[in-house]
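Example is below:
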Amino acid sequence: MAKALTSLRLDDRLVRRAQKVLGAKSRTQTIEMSLEAVVETEKHRKLIKRYSGKAKPGDFDHS
């Protein structure tokens, strides 16, 4: 994975809050984890939209 050195102006309070929520050890890890979460959220949103309304009653019964 290629990494780039980037200069950003971030709200320190927001970064600290995100770092605490994510359990990240550094600001870099906080930003990377946040970006990964955004990408995963969008992936899930697209899957939900794609398959929304296609399940039939009983499709998820496992007993």
